[in-house]
Amino acid sequence: MARITVTVRVFGQRGTRRLRLQARARVTDLLRSLGYNPEVVATRRDGKIVAEGERLANGDLVEIIPIVTGG
Amino acid sequence: MLRCSLCGRRAVYDRHYAGVLLCDRCLVKSVERRFRRAIAEHKLIAPSERIAVAVSGGKDSVVCLHMLAEHLRLRNCELAAITIDEGIKGYRDRSLPIAKENAELLGVRHLVVNFEDAFGATLDRMVRLAKRRKTGLNPCTYCGVMRRSLLNQAARELGADKLATAHNLDDEVQAIMLNYVRADLSRLHRLGPIYSPREGFVPRIKPLREIPEKEVALYALLRELRVHLAVCPYAGGIHIEIRDFLNNLEANHPNSKFMILRMFDRLKPQVVRGVPEFEMRRCEVCGEPTSTNVCKSCELLKKLGLEKQRKTLIY
After folding, report:
1. Are residues B11 and A11, on separate chains, in Cβ contact within 8 Å?
2. What are the extents of the domains in chain B?
3. Which fold does the domain B28-303 belong to in CATH?
4. Tell me: the pLDDT tens digits for B214-226?
5. How many CB atoms lie within 10 A of CB B261?
6. Over the stretch B246-288, which tens digit does the pLDDT of each residue have?
7. Whether complex ipTM tops 0.85
8. Cα(A17)–Cα(A6) distance, rounded to whole angstroms?
9. Taking a C-beta distance cutoff of 8 angstroms, is the pair B239, B82 a contact?
């Protein structure tokens, strides 16, 4: 089955990483594969907030923003 | 592309607990509607009242400040922001300028009160002293008790009728669960959209109580508000375990957080009946209101050997 490659950046951390996912993978699949609970992060694709059910495409730049802050 | 269930524009959020997708505009509108509904339903603010709001610079308090400023502008109410600087190096010194910036942007009076002036030591120093003296208490205990005390003093000195805090749905449900786990009825009964203790205490209101943390964060991002997104270096312990448990529960069983809140609200009248009446006094050391001879802040300061450092703040 075809696969896609996306670039992932985590807000507040340096650098990016490239990730291979199944074609038609959703944002939620990406988050789960990195161990994030979608409840505790917001996600931007190419600078725009996206719903976690949105499908990803080859070459997407995804930014994960941890939203659980404070004490 | 996923589309908004309400208007058909590009969706930015899956509101799993309601089974709908929302676009940026519909999400922002919905969050603002819940904020206004909480104020109206629980009569949190009356016309012409003076409201103080606790603003750390984090996403919740900045969102609360902006929504209150917009809401109160039309209602002849005065708003002032209070920031407590606990003295946490690398954390509070980064959020404080953001709190200040937002208050200035909105033309809201901003008051900063710090632990060092009030208690003679920063939280960082208290943590070191606590370790050295083996008090067995964690930083959140000192911080929570003393921050609440200073917020109340500052709000009272400002002549505020209400003190708004930015507790969101997640915070409230975590507090409910924590008090269940600790079987702490006296703290449990204080939870709710409004808590009006006795004389000397400014009634506290929580207009974000029915807004999930993720929606508060998305609101801040979508409105491009300047917020401090960081975790307190002292955060830890059972609070974090409960938070993670609830987030896993919500991910696997959407709407769980709201159900816990609704159940608590239904049980609350029985909870209140179970709390014994107590007499309100003045702390023998600092004069602040308390139910015991010495208030919790002074009790903790004594454990740290700082009891003589406490000062009365006059603004």
Report:
1. no
2. 28-303
3. Rossmann fold (3.40.50)
4. 999 999 999 999 9
5. 17
6. 999 999 999 999 999 999 999 998 888 878 777 888 888 888 8
7. yes
8. 8
9. no
